[in-house]
Amino acid sequence: MSYALLEKTSLSKSPLLPVVGQDLNAPLIHGGQVRYANLDYAASAPALEDVAAHLNEVLPYYASVHRGAGFASQVSTSVYENARKIVANFVGARPDDTVIFTRHTTDSLNLLAGCVQSILTQKGFTEGRSNVHGEVLYLDIEHHANLLPWQALPHRSVVAADSIAATLARVETQLRAGNVLLLAVTGASNVTGEVLPVNELAALAHRYGARIVVDAAQLAPHRRIDLSASGIDYLAFSGHKLYAPFGAGVLVGRSDWLDTGKPHLAGGGAVTEVRLESTRWSDGPARHEAGSPNVLGAATLAKAAATLAALDAQDWHSHEQQLREYLVAGFAAIEGVNVHSLFSDSADYPECGSIGVVNFSITGYDAGLVAAYLSAEHGVGVRDGKFCAHPLLNRLGLPSGSLRASFGVGSRLEDAQRLIEGVSALLRDGLGWDYVVDAGRWVPADDNRAYPHWAPNTPGTAGAAPCNT
């Protein structure tokens, strides 16, 4: 679809679903306000309005779960356990799969890593032995959440090629070599938005006796997933990227490893019997959910999953795809803007393509400075940095980072237009304000814009960890 044609499209001019804060105003550094164009969905997506409404319904009944006889406790327990069923349906889980609520995708993958460590130990494999068997295989394009946990285990990495076909061949070569216990891959790159053929990867893993875990933090908010049909063994994703507030994540998958793995947290609720010198651990989700669970996080995550599941898949994908094509076409018309991608043959794989993520850089400008400029002078929010994917950014020739625009069901055509206009103005007119580095981050000099009264604007808090999500 051409840039001109898409400008006439009505579908993407309104949000596909209403989100909280969709009409939020942001103050500009020169004065005045403008509707905030949120193009940072891949970091944390805004809550759906019906999720916020559901929270208000549930909140009066919020209480401790599982062991309370009171009415509110029984209602909360019902909500919490029913959330598992909703999530299981959302991802097409098998009848005997386990659904475990965690803090986020990173927590889910660390939980699974602990179970894999237990499997290796039970088989007699220990870290540091020569001729180690039962390794974890992962790609070099992974988010750190799907890379760092595996580095503590026997592991191998695969450098992704510049095509999906060649990458699949490299993965198969490593699987054929044997000794792979688990293949760990992303469902969609958090850097470029490109989708991997997870169904084919699952088939490859199983052909050579391995299992597969998919980091679906970016995939789940944008595409249908069906564990039963795909054969994916384990799936991890986060509520905060799925249009739900609070810190809740999910790990869904085959119960045998989860029931024999070391409990993720040692504490109340994860046991069936405790003596002073010994413990008998539970099976099922309780084994890994010690302590008081995040009931509201699970409830809102499940509500978001149910809302997305009710969407027409074609409308869902078309909304994002048109926005993405519009943005990429707009950037292509601006000299000095570079859009970055991994694979040359995504079109040959129907299940692939890209989600609502566009990675770009501007020749001659630091990514952090551009992000600060877009926010301060245009009210546009994008992400800059290395996106917790340092090996991938280095491969793309962007060791100091790049920019990422990301969107979803609450995005509008105007959001992409504003970004294009802001970048055009930068390359045409330059910066309209002075910017300085504060605690490692670019910020406007002499910034007098006020935060809401309940959010203190403390000097020196602009800094952020160098691993931006």
TrEMBL record:
The keyword Signal does not apply. The keyword Isomerase does not apply. Keywords: Pyridoxal phosphate. This is Cysteine desulfurase. It catalyses: (sulfur carrier)-H + L-cysteine = (sulfur carrier)-SH + L-alanine. It comes from Arthrobacter glacialis. One of its GO terms (molecular function) is cysteine desulfurase activity. It comes from the Bacteria. Gene3D superfamilies: Aspartate Aminotransferase, domain 1, Type I PLP-dependent aspartate aminotransferase-like (Major domain). Residues 38-419 form the Aminotransferase class V domain. The lineage of its organism: Bacteria, Bacillati, Actinomycetota, Actinomycetes, Micrococcales. Belongs to the class-V pyridoxal-phosphate-dependent aminotransferase family. Csd subfamily. InterPro entries: Aminotrans_V_dom, Aminotrans_V_PyrdxlP_BS, PyrdxlP-dep_Trfase, PyrdxlP-dep_Trfase_major, PyrdxlP-dep_Trfase_small. Its cofactor is pyridoxal 5'-phosphate.
